[in-house]
Amino acid sequence: MKICLIASLFVAGLAAPCWAKEPACNGPEFQTFRTDFESAANANDKTRIVKLISFPVEYWSAEGKHDVQSGPVKSEAEFLQRYDTLFTPAMRKHLHTAKLLSLPDGRCALTWHDTNSEFTFEFRYAPESGFRAIGYEVGAY
Predict the structure, then answer these.
(1) Which residues form the signal peptide (predicted)?
(2) How many Cα atoms sit within 13 Å of 105 on the Cβ side?
(3) Mean pLDDT of the residues in the chain
(4) CA 2 to chain centre
(5) What's the burial of 40, exposed, middle or buried (CB within 10 Å: 0-12/13-18/19+)?
């Protein structure tokens, strides 16, 4: 009887994370992540920023002289090599006032606009690492 009870508790303990609900975008876990992300951005701390991004990144927009190019970023090393074009002062400036949105599939976004464009960081929660940036997009507004 004791063995069955212990085995049941063990199995239930392993299964519990499958039933656990992911943290919400408006919850304390994302707020803590956002504070850390903004702090790293404000300090222009490249090392901290790359640790808050989930690599490989499928899409990341980079602006250059009125032209936006989007593409993947395969690794932390590639991001750091292209850091000045991938994580600009304008991006860092707007993070603090960016509007938080809850997206489908549990994703979160921080977004802001200017006259012609919309800028969006997207984030996803992973149980083993918490929230991480999964992309940055610039699109027409």
Answers:
(1) 1-20
(2) 6
(3) 86
(4) 45
(5) buried
